[in-house]
Amino acid sequence: MENALVLAYLGDSVYEVYIRKYLIAKKISKVNNLQKEAIKYVSAKGQYEQINKLINNKFLTDEELSVFYRARNHKTNSKPKNTDIITYKYATGFEAVIGYLYLNKNNQRIEEIINFCLEG
Fold first, then answer.
1. Class at the top of the CATH hierarchy for domain 4-118
2. Mean pLDDT per 10-residue interval, the chain, length 120 residues
3. What is the pLDDT of residue 67?
């Protein structure tokens, strides 16, 4: 299995592409508005909220939870600029799950997770 932070690095970009496609499908046509909306989902705070929703609703498999915890607990020397360390670590865990699923070619599961997160 890849390094947890490598998974998060990949997951960050995969998640952002899904969110951008989702927002474009909502017929948001101005780039500035797309960016403002995207930040609500792809920011550390947005990802923190999504992973908590997934955990609280027992939506993740044991394997996905294991990836999340491994990434969340990974020691890092970097400090987040716009958020606290706990939010940052949870967001990293969320991204790692997406990256892990992507590397394992499990796009259907990525879509299930993202669709669940986007539900009201």
1. mainly alpha
2. 90 96 91 91 95 97 97 82 91 97 97 91
3. 97
Active site residue 12: yes
Give the active site residue among 4, 12, 71, 97: 12
Closest CA to 118 of 1, 18, 9: 18
Q: How far is it, in rounded angstroms, from Cα 97 to Cα 92?
A: 9
Domain boundaries, the chain: 4-118
User: Amino acid letter at 54?
Assistant: L
Strands (E), 1-120: none
Q: CB of 97 within 8 A of CB of 68?
A: yes
103: number of Cβ within 10 Å: 15
CA–CA distance, 110 with 19 (Å, rounded to integer): 12
